[in-house]
Amino acid sequence: MNPRTLRIAIASFIVLALLLAAMLLIRATHPPGFGASTPANLVDSSMKVRAGAAIDGRDAVVTLHIQPGWHVYANPPSAPYLIPVTIVVQRGGHGLDLQPSYPPGQDIGLRADGKIIRVYENGTRIALPGLSSLRDVHIQVRVQACADKGLCLPPATLIASSR
Question: Residue 136 and residue 118: Cα distance in Å, rounded?
Fold first, then answer.
C-alpha cells in the first residue's frame, strides 16, 4: 500500500472512531433549540447547524447558522475525504440549474497533510445567483458539522427555512 493510500485509510478510520465518540458525547449534551426535528436516537449535524434562506437584492442567499465552537467544511473541500457544504434547489420536484456561489472558506488553524483546511463558520452566506423568488422552492443544504477541536458528526441534509 502506498503512503498516500495508507494516510487516507488511517484518516478514515480516525474519522469513523470520532463519529462514534461524537454520537455518544452529543447524545448526552443535546442543546435546546437545535435538532428539534431529529429523532432522539439519531445524532447528526442537524444538531449543530441550521440554514435560512432569504432574498437579498435580486438573488436568494442561504445563511448558515452554526453553533459556537463548530464549523462545516468549505466548498470546494480542502481535501478529497472532507464533506463540503452543498446546496440543491428544487421547484415543483425538479432540480433547478443553479450554481451556488460558495465563498472562500476561513482558515481557523486546521491542517491535514500539510494543507490548510478551509471551513465556514456561523453567519456564512452562500448566494444563489439567478434565484429571485423563494416561492415554491425547496432548498436542501448538505453539511457535516465538526467541533473546532476535531470531533465531527455524521452529515445531514437540512431544509433552508425562508422565514
Answer: 33
- Mark out the alpha helices in the chain (DSSP H runs): 3-28
Residue 124: pLDDT band (50, 70, 90) is very high
Using alpha carbons only, give the angle 48, 54, 56 rounded to the nearest 5 degrees. Answer: 125
Question: Is residue 68 scored above 90 in pLDDT?
Answer: yes
C-beta separation of 155 from 142 below 8 A: yes
Sequence-ordered list of residues with C-beta below 8 angstroms from that of 158, at least 6 positions apart, any chain: 46, 49, 50, 51, 140, 141, 142, 143
Kindly state the average pLDDT of the residues 2-28: 66
121 contact partners, CB below 8 Å, separation of at least 6: 66, 71, 106, 108
Q: List, in order, residues 6 or more apart from 83 with CB less than 8 Å away.
A: 73, 77, 142, 143, 144, 155
With b meaning 16 or more CB within 10 Å and e meaning fewer, what string describes 14-47? Answer: ebeebbeebeeebeeeeeeebbeeeeeeebbbbb
